[in-house]
Amino acid sequence: MLRNKKIYVMPIVGFLFMILITAIILKLPVCHKDKLDWMDSFFESASMVTATGSSVVDISQKFTWFGQFVLLLAMEIGAIGFMVFFSLLFMVKKKKVKLSDTLFLGNETNTNHYPSVKEKAKKVIRYTLVIEGFGAWLLAFRFVPMYGVKQGLWYSIFHSISAFCNVGCDLLGADGFSFFKNDIYLNLVLVLLMFLGSLRVFCFGRFGSMVLYRKTKQNPD
What we know:
Layout: H1 5-26, H2 38-49, H3 59-62, H4 65-80, H5 82-92, H6 99-108, H7 117-147, H8 149-164, H9 184-204
């Protein structure tokens, strides 16, 4: 029984570790333009990793491009799911996944067919990247003419991932997307991304069950 307790602890430790690492990186001078308090750094980190979307600073003004990129990775990893993300790392390194880890991943991807866990984890990441890429391509038709190629493409990628992950953060300053409130095309693309992101959460069971794994079979002895 003690061996299986790590299954309950892994997601908690995993998310806390991601929040801590992201906060530390955000404190590096290369990530922000002026002084960034530790509290603000932890708040932004936790908000992105947990896909909450709340912000206590203006991301576009406070963080450099590298800092914004760190936030982007944090929200992506948090949205895909910590364990699903690391299951891909196991596959890339061709490491054998333990049975207990497989059981956990099976619940995380909403499947009881444990041998298919790896394949389903691939699908989660593949579909996520494809849809986000398509969304960025659609947003580029609006952002590139307005902000130029470099900034326009970055805005397209960031806001596509932010919308699909249902985070809601933007790089447009204090007014946010209020400037585009009458832009039917842009609003439709963002709504579509948010809708598809919500479907992904439902279909692949990102949140899964409250109980990740419970041993139901008793030892015959």
